[in-house]
Backbone:
């Protein structure tokens, strides 16, 4: 199919004229990367899929306003990231509660919720999640602040340059650099901690 | 180093990285798996292990007595390489950092290739001389390799269909924005709104631009009409007389009856009206200066409007 060989901005302008194959092509190109970012941010398959789909819907609805001078990939990441951060703020799910619910009233309550989380790995989906995000590194990433998670993933999984990350996250370049350094230092510490214990 | 799992035996590089713990978790798992089934590579690894052990077993050789004294004596003879105390702030160029280990920041910038040439040389020199930092660098490299192994995770197979379904449902429940009775007017207002200043500074500039021609026109008018013999009426009468005689001259060939022409008669009475009502002149000059200001503002926006808004695509919230 010829669509496969077109650059992103041309596919995007076909999509802006309402061509469904163009939407499909953009999905084919970016569903994996976008879903991966969101999934690692929220660490829940169903939520991640919902958020990522919503990000694509919003992008496609607004595709008429997409500026071809901008990279489509950066744009879709920007929309997905904004949407995910909104969700995390709403749910206050800053860190996934491997340590028990953040809303628990006392130690006992926390222990109970922790047990529930631990024993809940029964459904096929949770087994899959444990397999996909169960590695030491994935768990360490899950314990970073969401802002740190995003910079690390955009840098090391997507391979974006610092200035592009700054544009996607709407952060000053210096902040991106600082976040990256702190995030990696925390990751390293956590991974070494696991090794020693 | 990116060694991806593949078919085949282990390379010397892979074996050394493996023995030094420099492989990512995934690579290491693959190497272990291969070693379980491949006697040839097991043997190879054992040989390397032997070499590593031999190297590690190289005992420390003690120099002759007085070695360190000798080094210090040479340093005193050749003081240029020793950082001098005092007046350091007068020396230009980067200060040499002596005896400090590489910082976490330095390790990361090194691995990202973001250190300047001099800083990189200094880091390499330090790494060559400092084994704790080499050890630390190995750990950082390992984090890099692990991060590089992360890769993408696939959504469920229905993901794309789900997006298109939602898109269709969304456009069905909100069928295109209700057609406006005057679409072009609405669009025009929208465009005009984009020309409005967006910051206090923009408003200040726009205000200044609008005020400047008005002030100039007022000053000119004041200068002209402050003369005792000059009034609005006399100036207009003079102008009218000049233009009408010029027009009459031009139209003389085309036939007489210049003043019978309804257009000319209308203009003439308009001028007379203006001459009797000087406030009309004020309104006119105000509109004129407003026109000037708008056109200058448009030029200003063209050349100085923040580029950000143009470079960034619109992001729906
Ligand atoms: Zn082998
Ligand atoms: Zn050192």
Residues:
């Amino acid at each position: 199919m010829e669509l496969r060989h077109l650059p992103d901005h041309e596919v995007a302008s076909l999509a802006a004229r309402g061509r469904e194959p163009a939407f499909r092509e953009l999905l084919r190109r970016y569903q994996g990367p976008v879903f991966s970012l969101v999934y690692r941010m929220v660490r829940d398959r169903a939520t991640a899929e919902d958020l990522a789909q919503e990000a694509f819907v919003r992008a496609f609805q607004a595709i008429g306003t997409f500026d071809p001078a901008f990279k489509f990939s950066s744009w879709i990441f920007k929309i997905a990231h904004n949407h995910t951060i909104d969700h995390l703020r709403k749910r206050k799910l800053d860190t996934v509660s491997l340590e028990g619910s953040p809303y628990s009233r006392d130690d006992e309550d926390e222990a109970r919720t922790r047990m529930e989380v631990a024993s809940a790995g029964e459904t096929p989906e949770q087994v899959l999640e444990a397999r996909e995000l169960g590695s030491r590194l994935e768990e360490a990433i899950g314990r970073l602040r969401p802002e740190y998670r995003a910079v690390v993933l955009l840098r090391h999984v997507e391979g974006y340059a610092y200035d592009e990350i700054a544009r996607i996250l709407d952060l000053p370049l210096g902040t991106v650099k600082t976040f990256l350094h702190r995030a990696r230092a925390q990751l390293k510490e956590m991974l070494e901690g696991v090794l020693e214990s | 180093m990116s060694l991806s799992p593949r078919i085949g035996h282990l390379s010397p590089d892979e074996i050394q990285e493996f023995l030094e713990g420099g492989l990512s978790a995934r690579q290491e798992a693959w190497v272990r798996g291969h070693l379980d089934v491949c006697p040839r590579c097991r043997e190879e690894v054992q040989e390397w292990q032997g070499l590593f052990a031999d190297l590690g077993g190289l005992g420390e050789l003690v120099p002759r007595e007085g070695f360190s004294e000798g080094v210090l004596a040479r340093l005193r003879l050749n003081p240029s390489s020793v950082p001098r105390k005092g007046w350091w702030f007068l020396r230009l160029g980067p200060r040499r950092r002596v005896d400090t280990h590489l910082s976490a920041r330095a390790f990361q910038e090194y691995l990202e290739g973001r250190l300047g040439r001099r800083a990189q040389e200094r880091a390499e020199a330090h790494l060559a001389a400092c084994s704790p930092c080499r050890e630390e660098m190995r750990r950082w490299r390992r984090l890099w390799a692990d991060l590089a192994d992360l890769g993408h995770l696939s959504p469920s197979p229905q993901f794309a269909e789900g997006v298109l379904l939602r898109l269709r449902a969304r456009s069905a429940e909100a069928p295109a924005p209700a057609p406006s009775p005057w679409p072009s007017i609405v669009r025009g207002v929208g465009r005009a709104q984009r020309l409005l200043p967006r910051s206090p500074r923009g408003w200040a500039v726009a205000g200044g631009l609008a005020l400047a021609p008005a002030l100039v026109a007022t000053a000119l008018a004041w200068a002209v009409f402050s003369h005792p013999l000059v009034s609005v009426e006399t100036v207009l009468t003079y102008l009218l007389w000049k233009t009408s005689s010029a027009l009459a001259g031009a139209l003389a060939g085309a036939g007489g009856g210049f003043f019978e022409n309804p257009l000319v008669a209308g203009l003439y009475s308009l001028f007379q009206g203006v001459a009797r009502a000087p406030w009309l002149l004020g309104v006119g000059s105000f509109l004129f200066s407003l026109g000037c200001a708008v056109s200058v503002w448009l030029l200003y926006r063209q050349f100085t409007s923040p580029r950000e808004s143009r470079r960034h695509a619109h992001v729906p919230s």
Q: What stands out?
A: The pocket of zinc ion (ligand 2) is lined by residues B 101-102, 126, 130, 132-133 (CB under 6 Å).
